[in-house]
Design goal:
The chain contains 4 helices and 5 strands. By secondary structure, it is an alpha+beta fold. The chain has a domain of 88 residues. The strands form 2 sheets. It has a 3-stranded antiparallel beta sheet with strand order 1-2-5, with helices on one face. It has a two-stranded antiparallel sheet with strand order 3-4. It is elongated.
């Protein structure tokens, strides 16, 4: 998707189903050109739902990072309609007080997630 389309679309509408055939072709093309790169990441539903449940969240921003062991990974945050990361937000608690909460800045998959991703990857894309 071009930058122009991203800027003109409602941020909540960015992304689309491209189907298995196109998805597999794109993945295989990347792997052929980047055989030593990290092939993918697995992120569980719970943290994604927690991020999306933050007030004003319309999507998730994924950024590449390096872990403590120098492995490529992702850090992800919620994004609001103004394209800003949700790093803090306000809520009204049950006594009517306005409180500030830290936005979710997520990472960590745990050791089993990599094994799961490899199995899922092989079953979907034949690798």
């Amino acid at each position: 998707m071009t930058q122009e389309l991203i800027e003109t679309k409602n941020l909540a509408e960015v992304g689309e189903d491209i189907g298995l055939a196109e998805g597999a072709a794109l993945v295989k093309a990347f792997q052929a050109e980047n055989p030593d790169a990290t092939h993918g990441y697995y992120i569980g539903r719970n943290i994604l739902e927690q991020i999306l449940a933050q007030p004003g969240c319309v999507g998730i921003n994924f950024r590449k990072c390096l872990t403590e062991t120098n492995q490529e990974h992702l850090v992800y945050t919620g994004v609001d309609a103004d394209k800003k990361d949700i790093l803090e937000y306000s809520l009204v608690n049950n006594t009517g007080d306005i409180i500030k909460k830290d936005g979710i800045v997520a990472d960590r998959t745990g050791n089993n997630a990599w094994d799961f991703w490899g199995q899922l990857w092989g079953s979907m894309f034949g690798n």
